[in-house]
Amino acid sequence: MKKVVLAYSGGLDTSCAVKWLKEKYRLEVICFSAFIGEVKDPEKLRRRARQAGASKTYVENLKTEFARDFILPSLWAHARYEGKYPLATAIGRPLIAKHLARIAEKEKADYVAHGCTGKGNDQVRIEVGIRTLNPKLKIIAPLRVWEFSSREEEIDYARKHKIPVDATKASPYSIDKNIWGIAIEAGILENPWTEPPEDAYVMTRSPAKTPKKPRYITIEFSRGVPVKLNGVHKSLVDMIESLNRIAGIYGVGRFDMIENRLVGIKSREIYEAPAAEVLLQAHSELESMVMDREFIHYKRVVSEKYAQLVYFGLWFSPLKQALDQFFKSNQRRVTGRIRIKLDRGHATCVGRESSYSLYSEKLATYSADDQFDHKAAEGFMKVWGLPYEGMAKRR
Ligand code: ARG
What is the DSSP secondary-structure string of 176-236? Predict the structure, then answer.
């Protein structure tokens, strides 16, 4: 019997997919689940997969790898799609693709499968990832081809085949969550004029319900990596999870946007990413202090491109990887401390300090200690403005 490795979430779609792949394709189904957000009960997940018909299960906690190899490069790139979305889902998919390919090779499977729909970006990220890593693997996307056209039909199918269906009422939203953030779509959010109801948010408090007094936190970076929170050493995963909790209480990191999907449609999405919001700000504020003007301005341009490549599923592409090397190249200098104020939905950098700082108070000051050569400015302007002076004279 040929084998397929299925990216399994434990939800209704992928549970039906296990049975459906066995029935339609006569394949042996091996389920793979990665924990990169909450660590759910692994035994429960295995049991569900087996009940649905899986012959074998891989349930792996991949948070550390996710933080090191996927979040950190995105942080260094200051990656936000269309200026807002910190790409949590978009960077989770290539990790899934990587492990699907790894397990398929180990199990000598000919196929991999996933539970993405035909309308989203996620199918692209997984499939382009797989094809880049191992073009021999054949890919099946049950949700694009199967006969079910509603949740009710899937539930009937599940009942018929004794696949466990969660008794709890399904959320009206489609949610994808990992430690870098959460994406929430569908339901009432599809109306772009409607304000997202409070119950749509999972990780953050409403700014109306945040503590009255602001809170100050300090983040210390060493070579681009956030290593201490309020003076206490933290692993990257712990840092991110702590910041999600702390900044979430202050309602930080909510986004409501219309975004341009790769598949051509515009969609209304809401995101919550408290830790990403704080860390992206903190990192770029520190970089502003330790890098020169040309570097910073150029980086902003390629950062936009980088976010598009990642959003478009090109994580394993040569340009994306070359840009990673560029962003990595100056991280040694990104060492120092940033002070952030959390207050009613906002995280604001209010202090910075680094032994690599290029900021000179003696040059910047307007006080008597000023060491800036004001006279030199005159000659500078003469030369800088020369081309335009020439043009004006010719008019
Ligand atoms: N629109 C976002 C993206 O393309 C989020 C996708 C979320 N996926 C989901 N199954 N809810 O990255």
Answer: EEETTEEEEESGGGGSTTSPPPGGG-SSS--GGGS-SS-EEEEEEEETTEEEEETTEE--H
Radius of gyration of the chain from Cα atoms? 25
Task: Say yes or no to pLDDT of 379 above 90.
Answer: yes
What is the rounded average pLDDT for all residues in the chain?
96
* The amino acid at 218: T
The CATH code belonging to domain 3-169 is: 3.40.50.620
Is the pLDDT confidence value at 170 over 90? no
3-state DSSP percent of the chain in helix, strand and coil, to 5: 45, 20, 35
- Expressed in angstroms and rounded, the spacing between residue 271 Cα and the centre of ligand 1 is 9
Q: Kindly state if the Cβ of 174 falls inside 6 Å of ligand 1.
A: yes
Ligand 1 atom at minimal distance to the Cα of residue 269: 1
> Does residue 89 line the site of ligand 1, with CB under 6 A?
yes
Contact 308, 100 (CB under 8 A): no
| Centre of ligand 1 from the C-alpha of residue 359, in Å | 40
Catalytic residues: 13, 93, 122, 174
**What class does CATH assign to 177-353?**
alpha beta
Chain length of the chain: 395
The model's pLDDT over 18-37, given as tens digits with 9 standing for 90+, comes to 999 999 999 999 999 999 99
In tens, the pLDDT along 80-125 reads 999 999 999 999 999 999 999 999 999 999 999 999 999 999 999 9
Q: What percent of the chain has pLDDT over 70?
A: 99
For the chain, domain boundaries: 3-169, 177-353, 362-394
Two structure tokens written together for 78: 């200051």
* Residue 307 alpha carbon to ligand 1 centre in Å: 14
Q: Say what the pTM is.
A: 0.96
